[in-house]
Design a protein that fits this description.
Elements lengths: L11 H12 L11 H10 L5 H14 L3 H6 L2 H8 L6 H12 L7 H5 L6 H12 L8 H10 L7 H15 L5 H14 L35 E12 L2 E2 L2 E2 L9 E2 L2 E3 L3 H9 L5 E9 L3 E11 L13 H10 L3
Helix pairs in contact: 1-11, 2-3, 2-8, 8-11, 9-11
The structure holds a DNA duplex.
DNA sequence: AACTCGGGGAC
DNA sequence: GTCCCAGAGTT
């Protein structure tokens, strides 16, 4: 409960819970009991905003209503439903999980062993679906606690202890799942990164970082490295030539042939026995840590297939859209 | 501990 | 343009 001399202020828990029960956003997975659906929501929400996750949540459940249905489906079909959502390892892990287990474990320890379930997601599912008293610490909770205790860069371990102490202190009037979600909801709707709505915050009077939200937590800078790519769209009567992306980045998805660097075009031409290709245009695409400049070339081809039948990344969709080849 | 992995929305 | 989102896995 105590962590470096930062006890939970009395009254904080109740204030937060009252607010949460009144003001929570109506989301498709609110009140959900099916552990599979709760798990799906949590995985979709990994590094993904609620608004973006919702349509995928609905579509995914429509196509794979149960863990069994997911396990029976081919990976490529799972990825096709996931396409455009990013972080495709989530879909691969979820599919692998569904093939491993028909029934989800009901404890944090059991869930934690499953592919794609890290500390946060295992805790979220354990608490929300099974009522286990374990704190789920995500980016929201990290920010809320950092501000609440005016702690610029709280170490992950301390943060977990702090959140666990708060949760246990709140057990008298909140279920573990409800408490975890209340803390996250606060971070997602009021205690936001840029301009927090402190006047509307139910726990403002407990907040030691109030008025200095930009210090808590300290922003971590990350820089993007520029990368130049050449893409070759081979167009034939039946569509375009597609190939599976190599393992690693975008693994499991398909796309048009691409090569890195200034020699990219020559490599591609050599690879397909072509003399020339026509430059159709360029586009930019950002990954979290990369800034891509893509030069798109086009050449005639004999074969090809319908791109709609393959799972494609947003990057490849952009490339194909550039030529109207979708 | 430091990288890598998507995509998009808010500002 | 920048930041970061209901993070996890690998090195």
């Amino acid at each position: 409960m105590l962590d470096g001399g930062t006890p939970a202020a009395p009254g904080l828990g109740k204030a937060l819970l009252d607010w949460y029960r009144r003001c929570q956003r109506p989301l498709p997975w609110r009140g959900e009991r099916d552990p599979y659906r709760i798990l799906l929501a949590e995985v979709l929400l990994q590094q993904t905003r609620v608004a973006q996750a919702i349509p995928y949540y609905r579509r995914f459940l429509e196509r794979f209503p149960t863990l069994e249905a997911l396990g029976r489906a081919p990976l490529e079909e799972v990825l096709r439903v996931w396409q455009g959502c990013g972080y495709y390892a989530r879909a691969r892990n979820l599919h692998r999980l569904a093939q491993q287990t028909r029934t989800l474990p009901s404890t944090y320890a059991g869930l934690r062993k499953l592919p794609g379930l890290g500390p946060y997601t295992a805790a979220a599912v354990a608490s929300i679906a099974f009522g286990e008293a374990v704190a789920a610490v995500d980016g929201n909770v990290r920010r809320v606690l950092s501000r609440l205790y005016a702690w610029e860069d709280p170490p992950p371990k301390r943060l977990q202890q702090l959140a666990q102490g708060l949760l246990e202190g709140a057990l008298g009037w909140a279920s573990p799942g409800e408490w975890n979600q209340a803390l996250m909801e606060l971070g997602a709707t009021l205690c936001t990164p840029r301009r927090p709505a402190c006047p509307r915050c139910p726990v403002e009077r407990f907040c030691r970082g109030k008025g200095e939200h930009d210090r808590y937590p300290l922003p971590k800078s990350r820089r993007q490295k520029p990368l130049e790519l050449t893409a070759l769209v081979l167009r034939g009567p039946a569509g375009v030539y597609l190939e599976p992306r190599p393992e690693g980045a975008l693994g499991g998805l398909w796309g048009v042939p691409m090569a890195e660097g200034p020699e990219g075009l020559e490599q591609l031409l050599r690879r397909f026995g072509l003399k020339e290709a026509r430059l159709v245009g360029g586009l930019r695409h950002d990954f979290t840590h990369r800034r891509l400049q893509v030069w798109v070339y086009q050449a005639p081809w004999e074969g090809g297939e319908d791109p709609k039948k393959r799972p494609l990344s947003r990057l490849d969709q952009k490339i194909l859209a550039l030529l109207g080849a979708t």
